[in-house]
Amino acid sequence: MEKNCRNWTLVLVLCGLLPLATQAGRQMPKLSDKKLCADSECSHPILIARALQDYYPQDCRFIHIQQGQSVYVYAMLKDRGNLFWAGSVQGSYYGEQEARLGFFPSSVVEETHALMPAEVEVKTDKWDFYCY
């Protein structure tokens, strides 16, 4: 019975009938084994980018980005052609959207300000891809 419930939950999420929030609190598949950062904790932003288009997340590991928003990039995933970066966005000055870290395709942004070089290679762990 429990296995059938999990299968139905997956079907409902994939069909968009069950919110992605139901994925919160669990480990998600790793997108990469390594990332490039400015420091060993990936706590300093590498660059600031501007969103070229809207991006709607695939699951809870990713963040929603609206065209024109500034994105602070903290890490660039390796091993898969730098397809995904990790960063945060904030709403407008009086906006309701709070800052949140997550992944997004590097192709939906363009670099506007380089801040620090991404020269430190860091291994990813399960917490990099954990859904909260």
UniProtKB/TrEMBL annotation:
<feature type="domain" description="SH3">
    <location>
        <begin position="44"/>
        <end position="114"/>
    </location>
</feature>
<dbReference type="InterPro" id="IPR043369">
    <property type="entry name" value="MIA"/>
</dbReference>
<dbReference type="InterPro" id="IPR001452">
    <property type="entry name" value="SH3_domain"/>
</dbReference>
<keyword id="KW-0732">Signal</keyword>
<dbReference type="Pfam" id="PF07653">
    <property type="entry name" value="SH3_2"/>
</dbReference>
<dbReference type="GO" id="GO:0030198">
    <property type="term" value="P:extracellular matrix organization"/>
</dbReference>
<dbReference type="InterPro" id="IPR036028">
    <property type="entry name" value="SH3-like_dom_sf"/>
</dbReference>
<feature type="signal peptide">
    <location>
        <begin position="1"/>
        <end position="24"/>
    </location>
</feature>
<keyword id="KW-0728">SH3 domain</keyword>
<protein>
    <recommendedName>
        <fullName>SH3 domain-containing protein</fullName>
    </recommendedName>
</protein>
